[in-house]
Amino acid sequence: MAQPNEAEMKKRLFHRGHNIENASGAPDGWKTTINGNTVINKLTLVKKSIDWWYDMQTFMPPEKFLARNSSEKNGQKIEEYKGYKLINDNGEPNGWYVILGTKLLKGSPDAIKKHLDLVITKMQKS
């Protein structure tokens, strides 16, 4: 029995009632049809389009999700500090925040770092 060539093999997935296939093997070659619209893109973006269709009953091409993600992350700054991520989404000096357990700390990076140091010191003592 002859083995099929790897280039001839199609990868197929099933997501929320849709068959998604990749015949090319390229990362952005995933293809499906949503409400009569054929979409070809990265697997995660194709799945987002399918999810959007099922949740909102409107078609959203994968490219729209890509544009949203890149515009949101352009102004975002992330700073690592002792295992915590300090995030600033808006570029303002006091627009920084970090999630500490179940609490949200907001303020300047220096103030957040001082508070984190106190919490870490307290946790090490106990």
The gist of it:
The chain has about 130 residues and is α+β, with helices and mostly antiparallel strands.
What would you note in describing this structure?
Helix 1 crosses helix 2. The protein is 35% helix and 32% strand. The longest helix has 17 residues, at 109-125. The protein contains three helices and eight strands. A four-stranded antiparallel beta sheet has the order 5-6-7-8, covered by helices on one side. It has 126 residues and is of the alpha+beta class.
Kindly state the number of beta strands: 8
Rg from alpha-carbon coordinates: 22 Å
| Main sheet: strands, sense, barrel | 4 strands, antiparallel
Uncertain regions: pLDDT < 50 for 5+ in a row?
none
Residues in helices, as a percent range: 25-40%
Average per-residue pLDDT, rounded, comes to 84
Task: Output the structural class.
Answer: alpha+beta
Our measurement of the CA-to-CA distance between the termini, rounded to an integer number of angstroms, reads 67 Å
Strand content bin: 25-35%
| Widest sheet: strand ordering | 5-6-7-8
